[in-house]
Amino acid sequence: MTKAKTNKRSKARSAARLGAVQALYQIGMEDISEARLLKEFHDHRLGAEIEDAQYVEADREFFDDLVTGVNARRDEINDVIEASLNEKWKLDRLDITMRQILRAGVYEIIARADVPTGTIINEYVDVAHAFFNAPEAKFVNGLLDRVAKEKRK
């Protein structure tokens, strides 16, 4: 794969990750079916122009895998996150956006062996920066690093 194709694929996957976190957030906040949500994102959000800003076209297949994979394996993913949290913390105590970032990152670690660990961690730290300040991004980094060391031996 040429460098230009690799860079385009990387940007499309980054956009898919951000979109997946947003979609998972929406599922967590509304009573909406997964199929309807995926269609809404495909038709109106991924790669769309919103308020005069043109968004990067996302890798739709990757986006779909993230959203459907997290939903299908939510209990398993939640258990992995809970096991990696400080014993004084519970998953439901975290901000809903943070929960979705962690769920998507953990899903990639446990289900997407084709994606390098460093890429996953860096990408979700970047997603965290889109919503939070530095301390929260460091939290994402630390938790995903702990999960990766446990799950990708």
Attribute tags:
single chain; 73% helix; two-stranded antiparallel ribbon; 7 helices; mainly alpha; 153 residues
Describe this structure in words.
The chain has 153 residues and is mostly helical. 73% of the residues lie in helices and 3% in strands. The chain has seven helices and two strands, in the order ααββααααα. Strand 1 (49-50) and strand 2 form a beta hairpin. The longest helix has 27 residues, at 3-29. It is globular.
Terminal residue distance: 28 Å
Mean pLDDT: 90
Would you count the extended β strands for me? 2
**Count of alpha/pi helices:** 7
Strand order of the largest sheet: 1-2
What share of the residues lie within helices?
Answer: over 70%
Which regions contain 5 or more consecutive residues with pLDDT less than 50?
none
Rg on CA atoms, Å: 15 Å
The main pleated sheet reads as:
2 strands, antiparallel
How big a fraction of the residues is strand? under 5%
Order of helices and strands: HHEEHHHHH
Structure classification: mainly alpha
Shape: globular
Summarize the topology.
Elements: H1 3-29, H2 34-44, E1 49-50, E2 53-54, H3 60-72, H4 74-84, H5 96-111, H6 117-131, H7 134-151
Antiparallel strand pairs: 1-2
Helix pairs in contact: 1-2, 1-3, 1-5, 3-5, 4-5, 5-6, 5-7, 6-7
Give a summary of the structure in a few sentences:
By secondary structure, this protein is mainly α. It has helices spanning 3-29, 34-44, 60-72, 74-84, 96-111, 117-131, 134-151, and strands at residues 49-50, 53-54.
